[in-house]
Amino acid sequence: MTETTGPLLRVEGLVKHFPVKKGMILQRTAGVVRAVDGVSFELRRGETLALVGESGCGKSTTGRLVLRLIEATEGRVELAGEDVRALDTGALRRLRRKMQIIFQDPFASLNPRLTVGEILAEPLRLHRIVEPAELTERVHELLRVVGLAPYHAQRYPHEFSGGQRQRIGVARALSTQPDLIVCDEPVSALDVSIQAQVVNLLQDLQAQFGLSYIFIAHDLAVVKHISDRVAVMYLGRIVELACKDQLYADPRHPYTQALMAAIPRPEPGAAGTRQVLEGDVPSPLSPPSGCTFHPRCAFAKDRCRSEVPSYRRMADGRFVACHFAEDIPKAEAAVDPEGADEPRYRRRLAVLQAARPQEPQPA
Amino acid sequence: MNATIEDVPQRRSAFRRLFRDGAALLALAVLAVIVAAALLAPWLAPHDPFATTRQPLLPPVWNEAGQWAFPFGTDGQGRDILSRLLYGSRLTLLMGLLSVAIGGGIGMVVGMLSAFYRRIDPFIMRVVDVLLSFPAILLGLAVAAIFGTGVTAIIIALAIATIPDVARVTRSAAVVVMGQDFMEAGRAIGLSDATLIRRYLALNCISSVFVFLTLRFGQVILIGAALSFLGLGAKPPSAELGMMAAQGRDFLFFAPHVATIPSLTIFLIVLCANMVGDALRDVLDPRLRR
């Protein structure tokens, strides 16, 4: 911890355009996909910021841009005051110690040719985190921290179940003692009961080590459980960023309202009141003019078609990118903070809260 | 999982597992015998492989006219075929092994670099295409023109002919591996490109490339035999299996053993190499373990 004041991470105007090439030999650029189109946010120490949105809205790309696993087109990323995008290769590799990632697919994210022990020892050795003599001991400790047993170190990843593998992924991310972990849909490939274990493990580790998370997800129940603040993304932009309670109680952006309404509601009749989002996500190759959400927005006016809404702070402290955020009626379908109107959703939350990670297994 | 946590499972070593595969074990044994016989040729050979006798085209012992002094008979110049076989296997095995090792090593590096650095990929692959369009025989002629004829020239030619094929196979395997999350995970840890290529890319491509190389080993021996036959490789008095088979061609109708015995030896070596390669692939890949 070099700097205790100010946010851990500051992201400003982050842009990533992927060129679309045409032709086999003389490739010319046919257009650009605006995967991330001006994203700004801050992350405090020990905080969890969730990035939510539909598939293809740029949330995973944002996570990778922050870690500089892909190079941004424009913008600024500062981790603990250090400009991540300005670093040379060597300095970036050293900084990687401070920022880690947990992947969505626990089956593809572990090198199948290395044993779990080798996978976990690699970052320790690379960043000289422990003396060579203590390497094995630290690997065993990491395994215990995530609820696995030391003898698992000799095994290969394919010998584990999905949930166990995800724990190994968590242990790998923890091994470098990072400040920031980008969790890229860490539980969406897991069963609900296992999801709960992993989510709770992440929370326990956060409390234990003071980690900050960027939690990328599309499961709003999990997001509600784990996050402090939530950023809703649509077509490469953040449309609303608010504290969890604010956002779930009274979403201000029409897109957030639609997203909240889309949480499954199994009671008969409930679907009748649901606000259903019409149409598909427009192509990020040629986004609509003005507010990119206007073709699907129930409240769209002329101004929305011509003028891009600014990303502004509202009176209650939240950020929103909508011209009429103050005037839009409170959504009926919004899930209330306690989830009292929705038994299934409430049960999911209950499962999340009840399932604590298993006791670390004895050596 | 019913077992309790105290039941630390026993792990079998790679060799143990290899030995459980009966066919592979047999192939390995045959290959070991051939290699040992080739290495011990000076002590095992009953005759001088280059000395001619007055009994050309003597049939092998299982023929009624055969003699125990020459178990596999003699060739067109009356030289003992068994002795020539023992010495010939040395040259053939060495040639196959060296050219596959050199060509395979270079080809693998080229293929992995091509997959890892997408910028240089089109250039490398066009060069590989050009190399692929040369038949190995033509390459052999070109190399012989530069370095002169001989075993070294053959090995160089075969190694060069192996590079583009291996580069292609490696690249296609490596492109799949590059798309996996664990490559990104390795980068996120802060590993250097060299480490990523060595410990992530190479380890995950090597099993498919290895099987290709064992197949290639057989092809290389056959092409080497063809080059010897054309007079580009081993020079006539010295023994080499392919050359021996080629020389037996003239007597195929009245003394078939002169050509068939070395040919069968080549067949046996290639078959066993393929089977061992297949089994090794299964053993080396942790995902295929049972």
List keywords for this structure.
heterodimer; A: 363 residues; alpha/beta; Rossmann fold; four-stranded antiparallel sheet; B: 290 residues; mainly alpha; MetI-like fold; 11 helices; elongated; disordered N terminus; ATP binding (chain A)
Characterise this structure.
The complex is a heterodimer of chains A (363) and B (290). Chain A has helices at 59-66, 89-95, 116-126, 135-145, 162-175, 192-209, 220-226, 244-249, 254-261, 302-306, 343-354; strands at 9-22, 28-43, 48-52, 74-79, 82-83, 99-102, 180-184, 212-217, 229-234, 237-243, 312-313, 319-320. In chain A, a hairpin with a 5-residue loop joins β11 (312-313) and β12 (319-320). In chain A, the strands form 2 sheets. Chain A has an 8-stranded mixed beta sheet, sandwiched between helices. A 4-stranded antiparallel beta sheet of chain A has the order 2-1-4-5. By secondary structure, chain A is of the alpha/beta class. Chain A folds into 2 domains: 9-227, P-loop containing nucleotide triphosphate hydrolases (Rossmann fold); 243-276 and 287-348, no CATH class. Chain B has helices spanning 14-19, 22-39, 41-44, 81-116, 121-132, 136-147, 151-178, 181-189, 193-229, 241-248, 257-284. Chain B has 11 helices and no strands. Chain B starts with 13 loop residues before the first helix and ends in a 6-residue tail after the last helix. Chain B is mostly helical and 290 residues long. At the A-B interface, α2, β6 and α3 of A face α8 and α9 of B. Chain A: It is found in: Cell inner membrane.
